[in-house]
Amino acid sequence: MTSQSAVTSAPDKTKPQAPRKRFTTTQIVDIGVQTSVIVVLCLAWQLGAKMGAINPFLLPALSDVLGRIWSDMMSGAVFVDLALTLYRTLSGFFIAAILGIPIGILMSRVAVFRWFFDPLISVGFPMPKIAFLPIFILWFDIYDTSKIIMVTFSCFFPIVAATYAGAVGQDKWPLWSARSFGATELQTLWEVRLPAAMPQILTGLQVALPVGMITTIVTEMLMGGRGIGGSMIMAGRFADSVGVFAGILEIVFLGFVVVRGLEAVRRRLLIWHPETRK
C-alpha cells in the first residue's frame, strides 16, 4: 500500500510541461534600444541644464522636475490630479464607446441609421471638437459634467467610424455559413459579425483613448480647477517652469499606463486572432 501511494504521488515526469514565455532576440534588442534612447535624452536634458547650455528657466534640470514630483507625491497632490484626469478621461471614453459601437453596427445594418449618422460623422470627424467647449459650458456647468461630455464628444467620432468600417468590410462566407446552419440574425450578430469587426473596433478605441486624454487636459487648462492640466496652467501663470515640466512628465506616465493597458485588453480579447498568435 505504501509503495503504491508513493508511486501515485510521484510527479509524472513524462507529462509535457507548458512552454515558458521567453523574449526573442528581436524583442530584447527593441527594449534595449528604446531604453537607451530614453536614457540618452534624460542625460542630455540633465547635463544641458546643469552645465548652462540651456536656460534653466526655459528648461529646468530633470533632477529639479523629479524633485518637484516627489514633493507633490508626499503631499498627495499628484495622486489627486492623476485620479481626476483619469476619471474624466475614462468616463467620457466609456460613454463614447457605449454609444458609438452600437451606432456603428446599426449604421452597417439599417439604412435609416446610415442616412442619418453618415453626414454627421463625415462633417464632425475632422472638426476641432474643442471649439464646442464654450457651448458645453453654457449648457451644463464649469465642473466635471462639461469636461466629461467634451471627452465623450471627442471620442465618439473615431469609435463610430472604426466600428462602421469593421462591420461593413466583412467576408460574406462566414455569414452565409452561419445562416446555412440555421443561425438567427441575433446569433449571427454576436457570433460572427461582432468578432469579425472586433479588431477594427479595438483600433478605433485605441485611437479614441489618447484623443480623450488630450481633450481632458486641454479642457482642464481652459477651465481651471484640479487635474493635471489645471495644475500646469496654474504653474505657468506663476512662471513656475518646474511645475509645468512636472505636469508634462505626469502626462507622459499616465498616457503610457493607459495606452499599454488598452493594448493588454486588445491582446486578451483577440487571443483567437492571428495578430495575437504572432
From TrEMBL:
Protein name: ABC transporter permease
Region Disordered, residue ranges: 1-21
Record localization: Cell membrane
The keyword Zinc belongs to this UniProt entry's keyword annotation: no
PANTHER family: ABC TRANSPORTER PERMEASE PROTEIN MJ0413-RELATED (PTHR30151:SF0), ALKANE SULFONATE ABC TRANSPORTER-RELATED, MEMBRANE SUBUNIT (PTHR30151)
One example of a Gene Ontology biological process annotation: transmembrane transport
Pfam family name, one: BPD_transp_1
Family that this chain belongs to: Belongs to the binding-protein-dependent transport system permease family.
Keywords assigned by UniProt, alphabetized: Cell membrane, Membrane, Transmembrane, Transmembrane helix, Transport
Domain of life, per lineage: Bacteria
